[in-house]
Amino acid sequence: MPQHVAIVMDGNGRWARQRRRPRSFGHRAGQKTVRSTIESCLRRGIGALTLFAFSSENWQRPQAEVGALMQLFLKALDREVDELHGHGVRIRFIGELAAFALPLRERMHKAMERTRDNGKLALNIAVNYGGRWDIAQAARQAAQAVGRGELAAAAIDERSLARFFCLADLAPVDLFIRTGGERRVSNFLLWQLAYSELVFSDVLWPDYDDACFVRALEEFSGRERRYGKTSAQVSKA
Ligand code: IPE
Ligand code: IPE
Ligand code: MG
Question: pTM score, two decimals?
């Protein structure tokens, strides 16, 4: 069983289009899958789930779609936080939150503050997130630490840099899932995916149910994770 699953929730727009409905209809339908995926993780004791909800590139979509997504985020926060808190979920938003309007930002901070001591599931929602942004902000933090004299520039290595990335306190991402048929990372976690197992599904996100998730878990458990070693070395361990 993976300890940390990260998902690119893709295919909402095409799902709506197949039904001749506006794209926002697909985003709304996708929220149900978010709930069921969280429940799937809680049931199976998966400790961390990171969901890509809005990329730093998604601002380029038509204004109406961006606006509809923001409204959905707002409503979801008002609706879901109580229940998630009751289930022991720790909610965290990763990404450049300063770009969001104040009411949304306040709700995000409140949800994070309120659930910060929960330990059952770390739920990370990537909004205005980009993997390159994450690398840049980690580099910035490292430079600031150097400026304060807390870190020697010559001491910057993979380990000392790692702690500045989003999600550094969690288990590494074991399983990366992308729904909706595309085979790309789309500037989601870059540093954090270094040794993740990648699983792609053609199912559109609103249709991605527990059975689909179980198939991804099965595919994951059938993989041999070698981390550079040989198969013989790994199977001996
Ligand atoms: C993913 O679904 C949700 C977001 C990016 C917010 P899309 O909206 O990208 O759906 P498709 O890819 O157009 O079907
Ligand atoms: C990636 O999906 C972002 C999210 C799921 C939030 P996109 O649909 O935006 O990715 P591209 O544009 O197809 O690469
Ligand atoms: Mg898409």
Answer: 0.98
